Task: structure prediction
Amino acid sequence: MRPGRRIREALTDLWLVGPGVAAMLALIFVPVALVAVLSFTDYQFGARSFRWVGLENYHRLFTDPIGRKAVTNTLLYVAIVIPFSMTLALLVALGLHRLAQTMPRLSGILQAAYFLPVAATLVAMAIAWQMLLHPSIGPVNAVLKQLGLPAPDWLSDRGLVLYTLAAIGIWQSVGYNMVLFLAGLAAIPRHLYEAAAVDGATRGWERFWTVTWPMLGPTTLFVAVITATNAFRVFETVATLTRGGPAFASDTLVYALYREGFVYFKAGYASAITMVFFVVMMVLTLAQFALIERRVHYR
Amino acid sequence: MIELRNVRRRFGRADVLHGISLTIAEGSFTSLLGPSGCGKSTTLRIMAGLDRPSAGQVLMGGRDVSELTPAERNVAMVFQSYALYPHLTVRQNIALPLAMRHMTRLERLPLLSGLMPSARRKRADIARRVEDVARMLGITDLLERKPGQLSGGQQQRAAVGRALVRDPALFLLDEPLSNLDAALRVQMREELTALHRRTGRSFVYVTHDQAEAMSMSDRVVVMMGGRIVQQGAPRTLYDEPASIEVARFIGSHRINLIEVRIENGRLVGPFAHLGVSGSGLPARAVLGLRPEHLRPARGGPVAARLEKAEYLGAETLLHLRLPDGARLRAVAPGSYVPPPEGDGVELEVAPGQAHLFESEGGQRLRVALQRAA
Result:
């Protein structure tokens, strides 16, 4: 006798969904669970035994000066990159959106130029930045000296290095955020601007506050989450330009994770860092999903 | 009130308006009627000040307003898409033009305005005005909602409210009913004409729907291909269309257009009972007959064969064929019982309701038709 229709359909569902679920379990959920378990041990890569240490790894990350430095540096980096990258991207997008009406080709070329850092490998770009910012032979300091301004050690001054990295991070992310803002601007119905003109919002500033800014609201939230996600992941510039130095002044979460896990083989501690990073990413990703849902805005 | 003098508009290499000259009388309800792409919306946008003419003048009250913004011209506009601000409530949407007009930038700042007595007073004034307008349009209970939570008709009313609130000199309406369903459209037609009567302001109404233009306006401007082809009262457009194009566009039943020959002051062929008087008669012309003016009548002078009868309740639409093969449509009252399809039908047509057009160019021939002896 053939199985009932209900059973056959259930089997089909299982056949369609099963392989994907199995792969996700094996490649994502199980490793995450293992990392979570490891984060409660003092396991070292290659060791034959380990000891349960409870929350000690987490405690260390948030109390040990070096661990704390990585956390605060990352937060500071994110706090600098988000507002500056978004403001600059919005200004560039507004400018290029206007320019596209009169000189579409020039606007297109500039858009491509702003997008280049996004498309380029950041490791390769980091070399270019290293040359530019070299304290004695770099062109940036050469210009500053010509102007009679002090020429700082951009990448080896403890008080400055994180800001330098943040500036590079901003430079790198403006192009991507600009594209998102441009898409948001293009989606604003022209009639709203015309209605605003009829209603008396004639100055550029009034138009911006009456139509552009509110209509960009969902895009702006989305851009903020994307920028935060990418800023939390900062690694390439740190690894290639400073290695977290000098004296951990530019150490960040992901770089610390790399150092502890792959240089010192402290798998337990690295796992704890990973878990913290994982939770932050999880929260941001959930926020991102929620915002994408809300893109059908003002309902 | 508002006057266009030889206004031209060119987009790139395409001429959209070829010299529009038009005067909108104070307090009139004027429709700009035409097929899509005829330039009627561009004309309206030039009146509003949202677009500028490539050449020509725009005058309001005798004054050149080319340099004035829409707000300075004190015009109000209702858009086809309503163009309500989606992030503001209906109340805020309606209040916005007043806030923009009467409050300084400082007073508009949300936090500061609470501290300034002048801002508080103005806010109270605006609130009262918004309430008045909402009551007039019957949307008081919708004031706290956002446009996304309203139906099409409600959004339409909110958009009208925003136009109405600051008592503009001129109302410009760009196909405001075309996104509504048929029943609501008829209802909103009545509401708009009532609004026009109540405000006494000039309305300029853009539409491609001849029924809207005919039923609402006291004056219709028919535009085609960037030109005004005829303007006048709805009755004039219907009774004396200036060209085949206008005749085809006006009227709910499409007019019958039949090629005819004229010999010795009368038409040759099925309409031989129609005589033409006038000088310089062409040998060939196009006869225009509205289906509602062709009535089946026993012993009528026009003989045709019935191909199909469509019963519509109040009337019956007859699809006929003339002996020379030309198709013809006629409208009979609903009570008319048509013969079996394929049988002959005799029809009557009053000479006063027939139109003659040039066969080249399609202009109306200024001749009189009468029953031939």
Q: What stands out?
A: The first helix of chain A runs from residue 5 to 38.
